Amino acid sequence: MVDPVLSEVVQVGLAEVERNLHDVVQSEFHPVTETSLHLVEAGGKRIRPLFTLLASQFGADWDREKVIKAATVVELTHLATLYHDDVMDEATMRRGAVSANVKWDNSIAILTGDFLFAHASRLTADLGTDAARIIAETFSVLVTGQMRETVGPQPGEDPISHYLRVIEEKTGVLIATAARFGGMFSDATDEQTDALRRYAEVIGAAFQISDDVIDIASPSAQSGKTPGTDLREGVKTLPMLYALADPSETRLVELLAGPIHDDALVDEALELLRRSSGMDKARETLDEYADRARTELGKLPPCPARDALEELATYCVARSR
């Protein structure tokens, strides 16, 4: 964000959200506070609150209290899903820290996620019945996406279409709600709020595709992540699904049959994937998503916030190149 006024608005707003996150998880029962603060204090990009704050700049008059509260709600909801995800994935680390399910146990992690969901609902009640309905619908889609991913493609269903549907439900929907709230509580028009929602839904899914590519393409020194994490966990991401659809990739079909634990085989699979048509097609899909996002931005009035959102779309593509 090159605009200093917008930058100040966002930084101050994110600081308020951070304080809210710390305040809302306080409990008279100390273990609840301790486990709830575990991921709050582990940090994170706070992407969802960022979208709420940026989207709030399109209306004629943004309600600061409601915008900050809405931004807190979406981040609390996101944090709650992370506790549950780590249990389902049997994760050991989250944001550089030992995951809650390992530090305590699965039951504590699940209960902590429930506690955060409860407080997100409590805060949403202050935002009105429309906001309460929207967050309930969002939660329903989040759960459906997780269930869809867990069950896997149905017989005869295209695995690529299934995967794109999953990331739209698991990732795109909450970011879309974050932007929708920003528009709602700033007196943006219905058309502008809808454009913000659609933009955020598409760009949220695009960031997941970008992560999929980075997990394969980027060395750890460049990305800050250990490449091949998805391979080790047996997760078939978009580049892999595209590669598996290529009849010439017989060795990859063999390697991707399940989780890969041998480092040499992980390196082999990464090298094959980097040269595969799957990577090219995944990047093409990413470009398409970014173009769709920019189309929605074209329906919004020119302003520093729109410039910032356009930069996000550009960054989403550039980071995976």
TrEMBL record:
Keywords: Magnesium, Metal-binding, Transferase
EC code: 2.5.1.-
UniProt GO MF annotations: transferase activity
Cofactor(s) this protein cannot do without: Mg(2+)
PROSITE patterns (alphabetical): POLYPRENYL_SYNTHASE_2
EC top class named in words: transferase
Sequence similarity: Belongs to the FPP/GGPP synthase family.
PANTHER family cross-referenced by the UniProt entry: ALL TRANS-POLYPRENYL-DIPHOSPHATE SYNTHASE PDSS1, GERANYLGERANYL PYROPHOSPHATE SYNTHASE
Protein name: Polyprenyl synthetase family protein
Source organism of this protein record: Lentzea rhizosphaerae
